[in-house]
Amino acid sequence: LDYQHVQVPFEITLWIMLASLAKIGFHLYNKLPSVVPESCLLIFVGLIMGGIIYGLNDRSPPVMDSDIFFLYLLPPIVLDAGYFMPSRPFFENIGTILLYAVVGTVWNVFGIGFSLYGICQVKAFRLQDVSLLHNLLFGSLIAAVDPVAVLAVFEEIHVNEKLHILVFGESLLNDAVTVVLYKLFRSFCEMPTIKSVDVFAGVGKFFVVGLGGVLVGLSFGFTAAFTTRFTKDIRVIEPLFVFLYSYLSYLTAEMFHLSGIVAIISCAMGMKRYVEANISLKSHTTVKYFMKMWSSVSDTLIFIFLGVSTIGENHEWNWPYICFTVIFCLIWRALGVLVLTSFVNRFHVNTITSKDQFIIAYGGLRGAICFSLVFLLPDFHRKKLFIAATTVVILFTVFIQGMTIRPLVDLLAVKRKRESAPTVGEQIHIRFLDHLLAGIEDISGHWGQYYWKDKLEYFNSKYLQKILLREYDQPKSSIVLLYEKLERKHAMELAQAGQLGHGPAHPSFLSSDRTVTTDQKLEDTLNPDVLDHMQEILARNLYRIRRTGPAYNRHTLPGDSEPTEQAKEILILRHKNL
Amino acid sequence: LDYQHVQVPFEITLWIMLASLAKIGFHLYNKLPSVVPESCLLIFVGLIMGGIIYGLNDRSPPVMDSDIFFLYLLPPIVLDAGYFMPSRPFFENIGTILLYAVVGTVWNVFGIGFSLYGICQVKAFRLQDVSLLHNLLFGSLIAAVDPVAVLAVFEEIHVNEKLHILVFGESLLNDAVTVVLYKLFRSFCEMPTIKSVDVFAGVGKFFVVGLGGVLVGLSFGFTAAFTTRFTKDIRVIEPLFVFLYSYLSYLTAEMFHLSGIVAIISCAMGMKRYVEANISLKSHTTVKYFMKMWSSVSDTLIFIFLGVSTIGENHEWNWPYICFTVIFCLIWRALGVLVLTSFVNRFHVNTITSKDQFIIAYGGLRGAICFSLVFLLPDFHRKKLFIAATTVVILFTVFIQGMTIRPLVDLLAVKRKRESAPTVGEQIHIRFLDHLLAGIEDISGHWGQYYWKDKLEYFNSKYLQKILLREYDQPKSSIVLLYEKLERKHAMELAQAGQLGHGPAHPSFLSSDRTVTTDQKLEDTLNPDVLDHMQEILARNLYRIRRTGPAYNRHTLPGDSEPTEQAKEILILRHKNL
């Protein structure tokens, strides 16, 4: 027996197998997943496993390695989230999402940090050795809502699209803030004195980390799209590029201390459209399926490991600190959501209702990211207390909040996701309104989201598609082809009936149908000028779309539109509709 | 910049990316792949990369790690090969394949080993310190034909199915022999004296290694099939099980020093049929696509690494030894194929032509397995010579033989693979002949392949399918349902016309159509015995298939066949045809 030799892959495979079998097991009993979220069940399995390992070995079971989590388990989930992100609601609410993600998270970090510092001043609690900086550091890791936990719970409760994207988008985009604040406070902890310059550098850093992530992600995304232009002959490795480039974007961002989550989401959202157009249908099925499968396995492993890591002797128990952490997490989130929403609602017609606000506040679940961050803390004498508090917060949010959120959604009658897809009429209506609003915004000089969307679409069709799409050699849409055919037929009929204006545009039209004598007679009566004029008329009517009215086009003046422009636009519109 | 942190995944991703981009690059020029096999181009890329690394670092580039090769790169290729193995030609030629794989490889090992030992006795060559055992050890690693190299070359030349399966099957199944002989000679090298017991133990070990591999593979395969019975509610992780179980079978076999290649092939061939029936169509597309993608990437990486590893200072050059190694590899393979084929042809009607024999001998390519094995050798003073000789043999076979085999196939006009799929007529004909031959073999008492195939099919439908397939609750085939419906209709018509034998089988048939008086009159005239008899006749005619002749069924006597038996058989036949 040579176990050493195969140990690493064997154990990895066994863990994945265990996770998959656990998933199958839950679904065998249909009742169970409808009451308890899968994440809770998986943590429970993990707890049992951890207990068994602890009982057998008599030492703490292995803790989920932070490196493994951030390098291997998190990327598939975030990639899946980014690739299947509904882009319309996301961009419609991007302002609100960013407000929650940035201001909300900062609010939570400082709120939790300062109030816990206040608790530490109470002598009876014996916590006076926990400094303000340590409390803020703890606040920075415990404040952020976890995308994995949110996804696992919100996937099952089917709230309306806007509410879902608000919570989920926040949980994804707060990564940039978390990364900056966590690293900032951690370096502050190690510094002897803190200058005000450092604080301002931290604020500046946030923009670098966030926007840098977006830039890295988009550049890898466009490279991926460009690469798939050339895979026509080897379809079989097409899906690979989607995974490779997005993973590289994540790793590159992590390497430069940028936000990896933001990078991989930008990459996925940036490439999706072009990659889908370039790769074959089967490749696309594989990409979609494999992404779902991979993220599902990662997700399962994370929750099982969370459970396993909970068991052991890493914890220092201090009732007041742990209880107040849970309470402050709830209070500050609720306050933050209330304040920020009242601010947001002032500028929007489509306001966030108080029911939605409650679910947003209540859906602020914490998960594996906090857990990995707390283990990454530098060693100091109260680290075990922080680990205990983090574990309790995670278990509290996942178990108590995760299990009660579905009944609460039912009880409050929160607006649900509509089950049916929008009808064609609705889709046309939405698209019509988009164009109308873009036009209104342009005329009124208000640069709103529709204006920018329209600009982006123009940039996309003018430059990006030409570079990134394989078959962008202006294929005529079927409606244009049909029109040409009908026009040609009509012209032939007219010509045959002898009613085409002053006569046939070209003798070749008739040479086969009429007798040679009439043909020659006609040709004799036409002077070259008339013939040229007719050919011009025919050419315009035969090979172009007839303009039935003064076309409104904001990018070209009425006179200078090229003949291919319109064909292209029709094509793009059809493409979008498809 | 924090490169250390992401180094491992980053470099792996970059290597895969390089491999994929190289593949795309070759296919951009359509001329290139039709002249030079892709494997040669990839080795060439590897050589250049190795040269660059060597030039920049001034030290040998990293050698392909044998562990990485055997644990991560080889399994995907073998899994792909096993999963897409055409089972009919494989099992039809299993005897010949095993003969080539077992006897042929042993022949080559001893032939090459002893003749190289002869060369070592020539004083002028300065090789007298290479012992017989070392030569045999070298023979054991250089003798085996490499499945990766064979697949890469034969995939492109499209020889006929039988020729392909002979070379390819041999290259897969010789793994068991190679493993045993290599480990045997390696342990002999370290032993002070060799007893004859050890030699016999070696022979016995071969059966353990080969059959053990088959057993491990089949048990994992059937477990995989059984697992996919329960994935109906979570389609998304279905493809995972195919990969997990087959990889586990490989690792388990390696752990017990059995043949991993044989195990993974048995696993793939064992589970394919049931897994395909259980999983959804999209899962199946994903499995197929991902397997192809993965094996393609592995394949590319192996050839690139082969090239990279060639550069460096691992080599000790000795002209006579290296030249004679190449010559002996060619001669002994040619002789072996000639002798074994003449033996095989004596027992077969469908003989292997001399052209095919030439291609089998010439297609004995060596590849990455030899290369990894030679690096796994224990350190001794002539190891570098062996490395050099192995490298030359691999490059010679891949470049010279790989590039000339296509022109030779054209020149000799070797029978090619038929382009079109067999017609329905042909398929029916083949299937008819199968049944006919199984019957003839059964009657004549000759237990040939058709007899065993039939037995296996019976065992499969009787036990395996019931356990492993999800929906095996005897769905009646549409032809049976139609027949029942027609029979029922016919019976009703006959009953209405009053022509059903001596009268209606049961009064309820007629109560709605006839008047009560006639009904009662009829009932009066029938005594209970006649009624029972009629009911029996009706039951047989209505709900069973009418037997039009004495049915031949080798598993049941004419009298005792159950009514569902026949429905099942029709179903299975239809299923196989589909």
Overall description:
The structure is a homodimer. Chain A is mainly alpha-helical. Among the domains of chain A are: about 350 residues, Na+/H+ antiporter like fold; about 50 residues, no CATH class. Helix content of chain A is about 75%, strand content about 0%. Chain A has 23 helices and no strands. The longest helix of chain A is centred in the middle third of the chain and has 32 residues. Chain A is globular. The two termini of chain A are about 60 Å apart. About 10% of the residues of chain A have low confidence. Chains A and B meet through helix 1, helix 4, helix 11 and helix 13 of A and helix 1, helix 4, helix 11 and helix 13 of B.
Strand element count of chain A: 0
Proper CATH architecture of the domain at 64-412 in chain A: Up-down Bundle
Q: What proportion of the residues of chain A is helical, as a percent range?
A: over 70%
Assembly status: homodimer
- Determine the most extensive contact between two protein chains: A-B, 51 and 50 residues
